[in-house]
Amino acid sequence: MSTHIPTLRQLQYLIAVAEEGHFGRAAQRCFVTQSTLSAGIQELESILGVTVIERTKRRVVVTPLGLELVARARRVLAEVEDMTVTAKASTRPLTGLLRLGAIPTIGPYVLPKVLPPLRASYPELRLFLREDRTARLVDQLVGGDLDAALIALPYDTADLEDMVLADDPFWLALPPDHPLAGGNGPVAADLVDTEDLLLLEDGHCLRDHALAACRRQPAPGRSGAFQATSLYTLVELVAGGFGTTLLPDVALKSDHVRTADVALRPLSGGAGRQIALAWRRNSARRSEYKLLGQFLKNQLYPGIGR
Fold first, then answer.
1. CA 147, CA 159: separation in Å to the nearest integer?
2. How do residues 210-268 score in pLDDT, each as one tens digit?
3. What is the extent of the structural domain holding 210?
4. CA distance 198 to 248
5. Are 28 and 62 contained in the same domain?
6. Are residues 162 and 282 part of one domain?
7. Does residue 137 come out as left (phi exceeding 0), alpha (psi in the -120 to 50 range) or beta?
8. How many domains does the chain have?
C-alpha cells in the first residue's frame, strides 16, 4: 500500500473550500494563508491523482467525485475527533464538547427541563446546541457535524443508534366552541376531521406523525391553506377558530399552551410519538451517549404530561 495518503489537514482544506465556495474564505476559516490552502489542495489532488476542485476566475466548483470525497472526508474527521474525545474522556465521561441537536417540536419543551440538572451533574460538559428539522439533523449526525440529537420516532434511523426516552401521546386542541370541546374523555382518531386539521409545513416530522395518528392523508381545504412553522402558530390559529390541531404531550405545560384559549382532549388508542436520543451507530463515544440518554430519560420520567 502506498505511503502517500492525504493528511487530515488536507481533508479539512477540502471540506472548507467545498462549504465556503471560495479559497479566500476557506483559508480564513482554516487560519492559514490562501497560498497555503491552495497548495494543500493541489497536493491532495496529486496524491489522489484526480481533480477535486475546478478553478475559474469567477467561481470554485467541486467536481462530482470531489463531492463524494468531501462526504468521506467528513466521516474520517468525525471518526478522528471521536477517537480523540474518547481517549480524553475515558476516565471522565460526559466532559468536553458535545454537539447536540434537537427538533423544534422537542427542543423548547425538553431542553429547559433537562439542561440545568445535566449541567449540575456534569459541570465539565460543554454543550453546543442546534435546532433543526429531523432530516437535516440526521444528515449532520451521519456527516459528523453533530454528536447526538433529540428526535421523534417513528423515523428511519438506519444509519444511527437510538434510545427511546419517553412516550409522547397526542392531544387534540380545539377552539372552545368546537362540538368536541365539551367532553373530558379521549377522542377517537376517526372523529378528527382532516379538512379542519391544521398542520406544520412539509418537512416537520410532527406533521407526518399527526397524519399517521389520524390514519389519513391530508385533505384539500384548510389543512392545505394553513401550514405553520411552529407549534406556537398552530395554537394561535386554533384559538382564533381557524381549525383544530394535534399537540404533543410534552408541549402542554409550556406557557403558550397553558394560557391559550383552546380546549384539549387526549386521543384514544395511545396515538402519539416517542422522544429519542440518536447518535452514529459506530461512534467511539456511544457509551457516553447511552449514559446521556439514560440521564435524560430519568429527568423526563415519571410522566411528562399534564
1. 13
2. 777 666 555 544 444 567 778 888 889 888 888 888 889 999 988 888 888 888 888 88
3. 167-272
4. 14
5. yes
6. yes
7. alpha
8. 3
